[in-house]
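The aim of this short unit is practical: by the end, you should be able to scan a pair of folded records and say something sensible about each. We start with the first protein, listed as its amino acid sequence and then its structure tokens.
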Amino acid sequence: MTSSQIILDYKKLEPFLDQYRKDKKKIILNQGPVDMVHIGHARYCEKAKSYGDVLIVGVDSDEKVKKRKGPDRPIVPEDERLEMLTHLRAVDLVVLKKLDAPKWDLIKLIQPDVLVATKKTYTDEQIEELKQWCKKIVVLDPMATTSTSAKLRLVQMGATKKVSAAFSKKLVKSIEEVLAELKGDA
């Protein structure tokens, strides 16, 4: 595990930010749940990194993901999601975003040169408001044909079809057995 790239407490982020600024590095921030890291996440991080020198990825805690996505999420626990991101070549630091952190707290702390988001992340009004802490905001299209949520829906649909088919066969067989019994008893 590359734990030196994982920041669990915002206070521990400040020395990194100070050094990056001292070295005149352009800081990019991206954030989200990043559940089940897939090719879209990797492409997205690569594209985000192309806007500067240092890519920091804020990752929602398990509790934050549950609140946003529902009780069955995340699929992958936060410690694994954090570590997986450190293995992407474009990612320099990964920061855990806790449920109780004030809105946009990480953005306000980092004040990135570039904030990278997807179209669904912020409204136009929110983007205007965020400009007070971000020098530039870049909105990217999705980088994969399906999101984690869409992939999970496909898995669920496949499982549902299998259960339904098995249930239907057993139900028909049970009905036939009951009818046969009734026929024999009559």
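Turning to the second protein, read its sequence before its tokens, just as you did above.
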Amino acid sequence: DTSTTSPTEPIADFGTIVFLGQSPENSFLGNPTLVPFETTVAIAGDADELERLKATLNMLGSEDLTIPDGFINSVPAGVEALDVRRAEGEPNALIVEMNQAFLDGAGGLLADFTMLNQLIYTATGALPDVVQVQFIVDNQQVTQFGSEGLDLSSAVDRETFQEHLALIYLTSPILANQDG
């Protein structure tokens, strides 16, 4: 028998932060508030920071993410980050390659803005030196996004779509498994 078995990589759980929206009805402007939540992601124990970030972003498009009552996740199931890398010559920018499902957005203008903000805040919050994100699909810069064709022809940051969020910004996570 000449078959070989590959060693299985050790899987480790790591704590990470994802941003969820708080229902718009809690906002004066009708825009959601983004709130950082602590969650756990399983990944190969030797994963580097970019692989961890990819797993974190994919948690937003996963049905495994537990959404607490009163909060929303505008990233549809099936939206996936395929690759995360640093932009050449731009040490504070990431290139995030998304799958085709990303281009469809979240099903409406406010949901599209919320989805983008969730991804941007999660990506820039995971790596302290990163301030900009450029989204690509099939190795091409995304120029039109979602149902309204939002312009993503250049890198975006936390301020790009800030007017579509409530005026409250929380900086520390809400722990999902709090007692009492």
